[in-house]
Amino acid sequence: MKRVVAQGTFDLLHPGHVHYLTEAKAMGDELYVIVARSANVTHKQGPVIGDSQRVEMVASLKPVDNARLGHPEDIFVPIEDIEPDVIALGHDQHHDEDAIAEELGRRGIDCRVCRASPYEPDEEMVLSSRQIADRIVSSRS
């Protein structure tokens, strides 16, 4: 069985998330998703939805075989546990593929790192949690 790991915050789920996870699932047989802990989301505003609720929502998606909360201190701990063949990054995630590959090698984890393709929405679609929040605020003003 070829295992794939995807990861993200997954706050306010949208079609871009579904595209990413569907594409990640197509890279292997089993898709494991690591959901970032709210306390670890430092590159953008923290999530609106709580940790356990985001894990539950992601776990319910068709492409996902297993969803779990990330480690509180070391993002590589769940990866060591899962032993994936592929780590699939979202097309717009801020992670450095080379730095991840280097750390995987240092830890003796043999897997490749690749990026999912961008999702091409129609004009009505929102593809970020920020767009969803902005649309809610503007519709309520």
UniProtKB/TrEMBL annotation:
<keyword id="KW-0808">Transferase</keyword>
<dbReference type="InterPro" id="IPR004821">
    <property type="entry name" value="Cyt_trans-like"/>
</dbReference>
<keyword id="KW-0288">FMN</keyword>
<comment type="function">
    <text>Catalyzes the transfer of the AMP portion of ATP to flavin mononucleotide (FMN) to produce flavin adenine dinucleotide (FAD) coenzyme.</text>
</comment>
<dbReference type="Pfam" id="PF01467">
    <property type="entry name" value="CTP_transf_like"/>
</dbReference>
<comment type="pathway">
    <text>Cofactor biosynthesis; FAD biosynthesis; FAD from FMN: step 1/1.</text>
</comment>
<keyword id="KW-0285">Flavoprotein</keyword>
<dbReference type="GO" id="GO:0003919">
    <property type="term" value="F:FMN adenylyltransferase activity"/>
</dbReference>
<dbReference type="GO" id="GO:0046444">
    <property type="term" value="P:FMN metabolic process"/>
</dbReference>
<feature type="binding site">
    <location>
        <position position="92"/>
    </location>
    <ligand>
        <name>ATP</name>
    </ligand>
</feature>
<feature type="binding site">
    <location>
        <position position="119"/>
    </location>
    <ligand>
        <name>ATP</name>
    </ligand>
</feature>
<keyword id="KW-0547">Nucleotide-binding</keyword>
<keyword id="KW-0548">Nucleotidyltransferase</keyword>
<comment type="subunit">
    <text>Homodimer.</text>
</comment>
<dbReference type="InterPro" id="IPR024902">
    <property type="entry name" value="FAD_synth_RibL"/>
</dbReference>
<dbReference type="GO" id="GO:0006747">
    <property type="term" value="P:FAD biosynthetic process"/>
</dbReference>
<feature type="binding site">
    <location>
        <begin position="9"/>
        <end position="10"/>
    </location>
    <ligand>
        <name>ATP</name>
    </ligand>
</feature>
<feature type="domain" description="Cytidyltransferase-like">
    <location>
        <begin position="6"/>
        <end position="121"/>
    </location>
</feature>
<protein>
    <recommendedName>
        <fullName>FAD synthase</fullName>
        <ecNumber>2.7.7.2</ecNumber>
    </recommendedName>
</protein>
<keyword id="KW-0274">FAD</keyword>
<feature type="binding site">
    <location>
        <begin position="14"/>
        <end position="17"/>
    </location>
    <ligand>
        <name>ATP</name>
    </ligand>
</feature>
<dbReference type="GO" id="GO:0005524">
    <property type="term" value="F:ATP binding"/>
</dbReference>
<comment type="similarity">
    <text>Belongs to the archaeal FAD synthase family.</text>
</comment>
<dbReference type="InterPro" id="IPR050385">
    <property type="entry name" value="Archaeal_FAD_synthase"/>
</dbReference>
<keyword id="KW-0067">ATP-binding</keyword>
<dbReference type="InterPro" id="IPR014729">
    <property type="entry name" value="Rossmann-like_a/b/a_fold"/>
</dbReference>
